[in-house]
Design a protein that fits this description.
This protein is an alpha/beta fold and about 270 residues long. It contains 6 helices and 10 strands. The chain has a 6-stranded mixed beta sheet with strand order 6-7-8-3-9-10, with helices on both faces. The radius of gyration is 23 Å and the shape is globular.
Length: about 270
C-alpha cells in the first residue's frame, strides 16, 4: 500500500490592504502672507477633506479673507505651501473644479448685464473654446434656478437687491458644477429670505458631494452644515475643531462678534482674472 503523503499546510490568506486615506482637497501648510510689509498670516495650517464643510471664523483683521485670497492666488505666499486637489497651487490649472464666491459686491462689477449673462461667465472654464453649448446653457439655467431666480434670468442685475446680487454670485460659481466651493462671507449683509435660500442651495451641493470652505462672521442658518470650524486670531489658528455652538461660543479665543461689511473690491468674471 502506497504511503500517504501528508497534505501541505494551508497558506494563510494575505491580510486585506487598508484603504488609502483620502487626500485633502485644500491643504495650507505653514502659510505666511503679507499685505504691503505687514504680516497677515503667520504660519497657518488649514485642510479641507473631500465632502467636508469647513468654516473659517474670526474677528475683522484676523486674516480670514487673506487666507482665501492666498489660497486662490490673489495674494502671494511669503512662506509655506498651498495645494489644491493635491497639486501645488502654482501648477494648478483645473479651475473648473473650483467655484469661488467673493465678498458681497455688485454682481456685474458696474457693467450692464442680465442675470443669465453674469452666471454664464461662471461656465466658461468648462466650455470648449469659450463657446457655450446646450449642456453649458442647461448648467447655467440649473444654477440660476438653484438660487431661486429662474423667473428673473433675463432681468438686469442693476434691478436686484443686495441679497439677490449675492445669489447671482453664488449661481455663477455653481454654473461650473464645481467639486469645491470657496465662499468669502456669503451671508454678509443679505436679507433673511436670501440667507435661507443660500443655505438650502449649499445643502444641496453638499449632499451631491461638494467640499466647501466658508469665511463667516456667524454660522447662522449654515450651522447645521458645518463639520469643522477653524478660528483665526492675528493671523494664527487658535482653534480647529467642532463649530462654536458645539463647544460654547466663549470657549473659542479670537472669535469675537463683528458686524459684516461690504467689500469695495469689484467682482471679476473669472476666478483669477
Amino acid at each position: 500500500m502506497a504511503p500517504v503523503t501528508p497534505a501541505a499546510p494551508a497558506t494563510p490568506s494575505a491580510a486585506p490592504t487598508p484603504a488609502a486615506s483620502p487626500s485633502p482637497v485644500i491643504a495650507l501648510t505653514k502659510v505666511t502672507a503679507e499685505l504691503g510689509s505687514r504680516p497677515v498670516l503667520r504660519g497657518i495650517d488649514l485642510t479641507v477633506m473631500p465632502g467636508e464643510v469647513v468654516a473659517l471664523l474670526g474677528a475683522n483683521g484676523s486674516g480670514k479673507s487673506t487666507a482665501i485670497r492666498t489660497l486662490i492666488g490673489q495674494v502671494p505666499l511669503s512662506g509655506g505651501t498651498v495645494e489644491i486637489f493635491g497639486t501645488p497651487r502654482r501648477r494648478f490649472r483645473d479651475w473648473g473644479r473650483v467655484g469661488y464666491v467673493p465678498q458681497r459686491t455688485t454682481a456685474a462689477g458696474g457693467v450692464p448685464a442680465t442675470i443669465r449673462e453674469v452666471v454664464s461667465t461662471g461656465r466658461l472654464s468648462r466650455a470648449r473654446f469659450g463657446v457655450l453649448r446646450k449642456a453649458d446653457r442647461e448648467a447655467v439655467d440649473a444654477a440660476i434656478a438653484a438660487v431661486g431666480l429662474a423667473d428673473r434670468a433675463k432681468d438686469s442685475v442693476d434691478a436686484l437687491s443686495g441679497g439677490q446680487h449675492q445669489r447671482v454670485l453664488i449661481a455663477r460659481a455653481l454654473a461650473a458644477e464645481p467639486e469645491l466651493l470657496i465662499m468669502d462671507e456669503p451671508m454678509a449683509g443679505v436679507d433673511i429670505e436670501s440667507q435661507e435660500i443660500l443655505a438650502a442651495t449649499l445643502r444641496e451641493q453638499v449632499a451631491a458631494g461638494a467640499s466647501v470652505l466658508l469665511v463667516l462672521h456667524e454660522l447662522g442658518p449654515l450651522e447645521p452644515l458645518i463639520d469643522r470650524a477653524v478660528v483665526l486670531r492675528d493671523g494664527c489658528v487658535v482653534h480647529d475643531g467642532p463649530p462654536p455652538r458645539a463647544v460654547g461660543q466663549h470657549a473659542l479665543p479670537g472669535h469675537d462678534h463683528v458686524h459684516p461689511h461690504t467689500a469695495a473690491e469689484p467682482v471679476r468674471t473669472g476666478l483669477l482674472t
